[in-house]
Amino acid sequence: xxxxxxxxxxxxxxxxxxxxxxxxxxxxxxxxxxxxxxxxxxxxxxxxxxxxxxxxxxxxxxxxxxxxxxxxxxxxxxxxxxxxxxxxxxxxxxxxxxxxxxxxxxxxxxxxxxxxxxxxxxxxxxxxxxxxxxxxxxxxxxxxxxxxxxxxxxxxxxxxxxxxxxxxxxxxxxxxxxxxxxxxxxxxxxxxxxxxxxxxxxxxxxxxxxxxxxxxxxxxxxxxxxxxxxxxxxxxxxxxxxxxxxxxxxxxxxxxxxxxxxxxxxxxxxxxxxxxxxxxxxxxxxxxxxxxxxxxxxxxxxxxxxxx
Length: 308
Hints:
The radius of gyration is 21 Å and the shape is flat. It contains nine helices and twelve strands. The protein has helices spanning 13-29, 43-52, 78-86, 97-111, 125-131, 168-181, 195-207, 223-234, 269-282; strands at residues 2-5, 33-36, 54-57, 69-71, 91-93, 115-119, 138-141, 158-162, 213-217, 239-242, 258-263, 287-290. Strand 4 (69-71), helix 3 and strand 5 (91-93) form a beta-alpha-beta unit. The strands form three sheets. The protein has a five-stranded parallel sheet, with helices on both faces. Strands 3-2-4-5 form a four-stranded parallel sheet. The protein has a three-stranded parallel sheet with strand order 7-6-8, sandwiched between helices. It folds into three domains: 2-11 and 195-290, Cobalt-precorrin-4 Transmethylase, domain 1 (3-Layer(aba) Sandwich), CATH 3.40.1010; 13-97, 3-Layer(aba) Sandwich (Rossmann fold), CATH 3.40.50.11270; 98-181, Cobalt-precorrin-4 Transmethylase, domain 1, CATH 3.40.1010.
């Protein structure tokens, strides 16, 4: 059996920055550090940080007075920020800079008098954060079919923004439907799909055509990991989203000659290596190679609160 690893895979710059922020906050301010929502969507990362003294909560009112508070990489609404200020909580914002860019685009379009259409998944924390940055509210569109049914105030005064972790294919279809129905709508085409999401999707599209089976390492609540699994299936390759090596069903490997492995942007490389080790234990003769792909060099600055 041959294992081919996707390139790139795993942690992106925004995830790496968010995790580093929590670790630095623990070093500087001491435990406990309170994190509003999971810092990133990976239970292994969350459990590791929890073991170091991070406490994860869903709402600001769960945080004790005066406790250092971190906002997750997905971003938060202005309401959440205001609640933290009202309670005088010291805060550190770990929102991914690419998500912050979407917030600014939405706010800029609103100032121009445009009604905002947000392409994304209901209930996702990034969608909730972006929605909460637009004072007049947003129209959420999840599928291209939704476009025919939405009601707008003025078809000539519209703008759209997108959740950063969506599939390029599904997003382009929704944008196409919006432009067909509302020719004067303004938006950034596909530029709001973050570079890491795009690169990992491009790699999987290529990898899926080279392998008999695709394993995507990532948590079930990770949007970008789910999209990678979906892309593999769309290419006709049996594809499974696994949290770690123990999720592997040995029957999946039966009669498979080439197995592809990738990881979502919030999955650590150690989980990928664990999957490789598990497959090797189930195969008498196994080789590993890394496919050719983009080398990522993007790095984001840490906030001043953890640069002490």
